[in-house]
């Protein structure tokens, strides 16, 4: 296909995908199947891959967001995001209504009743119809800037439709829909990964991800129910907000009621309870709000919440069933968890046959025994939990559950001794070779962020360990294609072999991992306290893994902190570290004459201890035997200082004409520069494109030099 023809087809695909997004997310009326939608999306991805010059920042494929952040920027809410007073009592709802009538006597006070969405509270700011910022509630006054993550949610428009106000802050809840949650857990089950507990936790965890590419893979949605700061918006009552949001293309609460009497309020709460299980998102209550904004202003606020609203929480459905048995599961960190095996029972629309008992102390506190009749509820309507025991129905021969005796003091998976870990109120298997733990280490070792070994996660890792083909991660490098091809991922009764095609693919990935960088290997080895950033820092100052294991730099860091009171000795060590580029002089007044090292004493001790341990020594020996020598990223202090942009800090904002911000960041970092997420007096340049954000304004205030792409290219080496 020629580029001109590709451009035309790409535009058609983008328009069609946006139309289907609108039908699915805004109107809940899809006209094509998920498979057909995926086909259109894949065609667009393939064409943009073939013709990268045709990619635009607003293409549906670019919702992944960009490079992972190191940390979230903190942003202040123009109007505080206060939480609501909660109640489980209809009497309290009556008292609330009486209270507002007492505060506004002789007035009609219509209220709105709407679903209380069980999600994560967020605030989005649109300026002149374009999404400018998204933030979490945080402490109500300050939250995390999650704009990159919010952009990955397809139901969130980049631009508002119709005549958008100059400033519009919308508030709502990010959620994971029921079907998406079930699909995600089904996928994790197939991969042998731990299942997520409930949709709200997954939504909250997703928004905390620093890598927007991960967020983009989660089936998240958002529903808006109100506004914060606005400019150019003429709305007097809350009930007008919902149709306005939909008109602007924002997903809004689909059902609400207006009521004037207590009877009408309670009728609406009951009606909502009857239909809320049909919504795509989880709900745990009803919110009652005064409709008139003028009346809200006169009612005011308490220190923590508005006087003009209250949240009524529905009671979770509870049922009785018999506890048949208690079994012990071993987690991938070695912790033993008791699980209740139940007579299957229907709770909140699904059949429950198992429920968590958390730990030994929980069993003792509730005096749970095999044979008991227990009361079950779904906490958050998802996690099955044993609430209490119906002791009047207890069998005479039911005995207290003895956790240690039940498993005879041994791990039920490997048979090795266990011990009680007081820190986690749990029993733990200490055998690092326990299959349950080995599987977890193999998964981590092979993960995309580590050695990126395709097809060796989840069920494959489980079966490799279970079959005895591997006992530790490095055994992967001795696997043969024919061994992997014959691996049975199913059961003896229903076999499902891995297959030669998958095996060949996996072996190629394993071989490729041999040549990956030192930082990837340091991260993959799961050294305590060593994350991706620390692994990169260590790799930049060491030649190989042996160099890290016996690092003089790390020994110097420890010695420096041990001798800080001995000024002369500490000064000598500090000078050595500074000369090596592993430290710089502290700019803090409290740390006068002190230094800041690349890694602290905790990390230094952890790394040295790991490689000095039996496990660490074995790893070094095996790597040598396998002839694996990860490539070094070591940069000498002299070489780093000689790079063209060494010591320069950049901040990127807006859309650049001919390169993405990701590409600009790569160029800056490759030349020794640093890219920051926020502007300060220490910023050297703000690289600004079209429609820059608040960073542009802050740069002007601080007098930081602002450059465009043309000027940026001039400072790059020819």
What does this structure look like?
There is one protein chain. The protein has 718 residues and is α+β, with helices and mostly antiparallel strands. The chain has 6 domains: 62 residues, Helix Hairpins (Orthogonal Bundle), CATH 1.10.287.610; 238 residues, D-amino Acid Aminotransferase, Chain A, domain 1 (2-Layer Sandwich), CATH 3.30.470; 112 residues, OB fold (Dihydrolipoamide Acetyltransferase, E2P); 79 residues, DNA polymerase, domain 1 (Orthogonal Bundle); 117 residues, 5' to 3' exonuclease, C-terminal subdomain (DNA polymerase, domain 1); 73 residues, Rossmann fold (3-Layer(aba) Sandwich). 37% of the residues lie in helices and 20% in strands.
Number of domains: 6
Strand content: 15-25%
- What is the name of the CATH topology of the largest domain? D-amino Acid Aminotransferase, Chain A, domain 1
CATH architecture annotation name of the largest domain: 2-Layer Sandwich
What is the first-to-last residue Cα distance? 33 Å
**How is the biggest beta sheet arranged?**
7 strands, antiparallel
Helix content: 25-40%
Shape: globular
Going by CATH, the homologous superfamily of the largest domain would be: DNA ligase/mRNA capping enzyme
Radius of gyration: 29 Å
Characterize the quaternary organization of these chains: single chain
Structural class: alpha+beta
